[in-house]
From TrEMBL:
This is Geranylgeranyl pyrophosphate synthase. One of its GO terms (molecular function) is metal ion binding. InterPro entries: Isoprenoid_synthase_dom_sf (IPR008949), Polyprenyl_synt (IPR000092), Polyprenyl_synt_CS (IPR033749). It comes from Saccharomonospora glauca K62. Its cofactor is Mg(2+).
Amino acid sequence: MSVRDGTIDELRAAVGLQIADEELLRTLVAGLENVEEILREVASSDVAAIDEAARHLVDAGGKRFRPMFTLLAAQFGKDGSGEAVITAAAAVELVHLATLYHDDVMDEATMRRGAPSVNARWDNSVAILTGDYLFAHASRLVADLGTDAARIIAETFGELVTGQMRETVGPRDGEDPVEHYLSVIGQKTGSLIATAGRFGGMFSGAEPEHVEALHRFGEIVGTAFQISDDIIDIASPSDTSGKSQGTDLREGVRTLPMHYALSHDPDPRLVTLLSGPLADDALVEEALDLLRRSGGLERTRETLADYARRAQEELAALPASAAREACESVADYLVARTH
């Protein structure tokens, strides 16, 4: 069994990817193996401190959804396994890994993927510089793909940073918090997955209209995954979701169900509880109970269903194939995983 066979199983469980076609499955497995080789090569350095810190998250694994989607999008072109596709897939994952190093510093996280985060194991400076190191190597890889690719990844960097900045400062006076939140997660999460789909189509030689459909699908799906995570953090018992509940409440992060719950005749007690981070377990449970009984969860589920519908509409523009069916299964899973 290949190491990447395990990753495909993780993808099926984590993102609802269903692949019945054995040829497509073998193509994705082989492509992910090649991506992994590039990631390990890039993470190595003659400088021991860089080598250890950069390999920390690469070796920890993860779902590898972004490179997988790049490879899946490439199946709509004539050269779905070409070197440029593999390079692009590795580049988008490096960008994602770099953002995780930076996110952990901003969130003061202590764990990442079941291991101590770099900022906790070393310090914030090491985590920030390691993230910068991976950003640099992602840019180097993309530079080999041409000026269009370099421009696209630069624009994606801009979206990621803008989304993070807007989340940090919050909505402007008079700005709808719900619209602000959806826009922010579109930038922070949707933009890179959109680029993954765009790169896969571009570098496999897919038709321009198919590249654009993959780009839009990626943005919608990326945003929708965050919305579904928001629901699970409140609605699903820890022993069901495999994640501790109320993480966002403990960090003082307002997610979509919270914004909806506060947008119309909110419970005064809930307003108080959502005014800052909650350290006490009893207060977290109280807030979870109030959120579950509010209309916020149901409105969030309606919004998620709308995103899933829009994602399926984008896929309708693509030719029927095993790859399209695999993408459709991800869109379906977005809603199913929250029930």
